[in-house]
Write a structure and sequence with these properties.
- The structure is a single chain.
- The protein is α+β, with helices and mostly antiparallel strands and 146 residues long.
- It is 46% helix and 24% strand.
- It has a 5-stranded antiparallel β-sheet with strand order 1-5-4-3-2.
- The longest helix is centred in the C-terminal third of the chain and has 18 residues.
Amino acid sequence: MRKIALTLVLLVSAAMPAYAELITVQSAKPVAATMDALEAAVGQAGATVFARVDHQAGAATADLQMPAAQVLIFGNPKLGTPAMNADIRAALYLPLKVAVHEAAGGSVLIYEDPVEMLSGLDIPSDAPFVKMMQGALGKLTAAAAQ
């Protein structure tokens, strides 16, 4: 019986996805204002906004309720193209995404560190474009939180 239980634990843990540590940035502003500031910062940085997804509005179309939550999808070919040239599987993780959700006293921005996000690929963690993605995400989310 013990062997069966151990086997089940191993099977379940192997089947579960690995969850990456996420970077969070607090903002005193509500979700919409924080996301507006993030979108403006992305545009000022010369990146392209591909989509802004409002999950709360989507839930409302199904007569469901949820706290305010939005995702901004954006990128810059100067950073993304070298990543995809290094390993085309990077296309599964790019463009970059930042989520903003409602929290006590304002909102929280969340994103995955590019080093961790691309860690299973044939991309060195110290590649210049990875470091630039890290810097950009840090600066953009900090600007949005101000």
